[in-house]
Amino acid sequence: HDLLRCAEVQLELAELLETAMRLSGTRMGHITRCAQGSDKLHIVVQRGLGIDFFERFEAMPADCEAAWCRAVRLKQRIVIPDIGSEPDHPGRTFQRLPYRGEFAVPLLVSEPQVEARGALTTLFTHSHEPSRLEAANLDSIVREAADLITRIP
Fold first, then answer.
1. DSSP, res 27
2. Is 10 within 8 Å of 18 (Cβ atoms)?
3. Where is 30: in which H helix or E strand?
4. Is residue 124 within 8 Å of residue 101, measured between CB atoms?
């Protein structure tokens, strides 16, 4: 039963990610989840990034400097227009990284207090800063994703 529910949630999250990517004008992104009591963020769904990326970044320490880790840690949107300008970014040492810009939005839930359970991240082949409209559009998607992520056992 839990496996079936998890698969259904992953399909719904994948649809939300694809919508977010379309709204942002990119073909790459992922949704991560931090299980309660864990200090790692795990990729739940990803699009356009390939197996090398997944193997390298599937489980990242929550204290790393990638946008999605910062978004969870700080409970706010994080924009890294160009990871090349970030000396502590974990992607700087990954030679085949397919993107430069990151925009991560935390998946916030408020039971019993506000906490970030993961992040929705869109990635760009070029330097990128989201417009206000793009950020606002992603906010509604992120609310749905946050509700879904709490249903994963």
1. S
2. no
3. strand 28-33
4. yes
Give the rounded percent of residues in the chain with a pLDDT score beyond 90. Answer: 56
Q: Is 69 helix (H, G, I), strand (E, B) or coil?
A: helix
CA 151 and chain centroid, separation: 17
> At 14, phi and psi to the nearest 5?
-60, -40
Query: H helices within 25-153, ranges in order?
Result: 50-57, 67-74, 132-149
pTM: 0.90
Q: pLDDT category, 86, cuts 50, 70, 90?
A: confident
One-letter amino acid of 112: P
Residue 44 is encoded by which pair of tokens?
């739940």
Give the chain's length. Answer: 153
Tell me the C-alpha distance between 130 and 135, whole Å: 6
